[in-house]
Amino acid sequence: MILTNLQLKNFRNYDSLDLSFNKKINIFIGNNAQGKTNILESIYVLSLTKSHRTNKDPYLIKKDSLFTKIIGTINDNDNNTKYEVLINENGKRVSINDKPLKKVSEYLSKINAIMFCPDDLEIIKGSPQERRSFFNISISGFNNDYVRYLNEYNKILRTRNEYLKNYEIINKDYLDVLTNKLIDLNIYIYNERKKYVETINKYLSNIYNDITGKTNIVLKYDSFIEDEDNLRNQLEDKFNMVYNNELFQKVTLLGIHKDDFSIFIDDVKINNYGSQGQHRIAVLCLKLSEIKIYEEEYNKKPILLLDDIFSELDTTKKSNIIKFIKNDLQVFITSTDLNNIDKIILKQADVYKIDNGKVVEGE
Asked: For residue 114, what pLDDT is reported?
């Protein structure tokens, strides 16, 4: 999978941009706040229709503009496909080969991109919501049905919460209808998350061993579901047990929207107690495991987006990323200084100098 061309209109600090890319390595060099990260962000949005930096789509639109448009041409097995994401005051529209799609979920999982950036530490030490968001995005990269079910879950959850909050007299039959829908969606999402965690763990230990020489690392899914047998009966019992409390507190008390994920190193949960170094290694291993899943489970080559990370990595971690870069992947890198980037990488790279939202030089 190769991004051969990228066109931007009114994206962040870019009026317009039209770039064609090396199928191997592309480096954007320049001072801070010039627009290097914005290019990687636009590729991420082209892939997942959302930013890794903000949940508010209007922030992507250039100041005093009415819309932003991202167009990318992907070459996959010698077939060229045009993808487009348009964001304006009315929301978001996506299209493939100029054909508009009714739902964003139909667009997802087509372009496979993995982002490495300094803020990745929040995956480990941040809030459960941030971890859920990371894993939801990761799973949607492989399974666009997951997004559809997750959106439906959030819709039913909002409806159920509004009903509990705003009605003094609760019609239990109606509430049971919502609960049963929620249970079905809980079961699907739980199973997909569990399956994904199991797949990550197939690769996590070996990658951790490559980096540290140790193998004792595991990702765990912390769910309100305790037993996998008779899931429907189990969840019906759980919701019946909290029914009176939900009427009193006027909110849904159970569900996968409260679940979390934990990383254990040497049998110690590092989310809250690990060192900065452990957090960095754990995040790196998670992202490298994602690459292995694309390659081994789906026979795909994801696009790697490396946003100013080489200056923060030691030699060992750099060499492990370089090992994946050598593995026939297209890579986009940002840096303020080419001295931070290994000479092996530079030999294979096209270098673009970015200044104030413009490509002022290409090498």
From this structure: 93
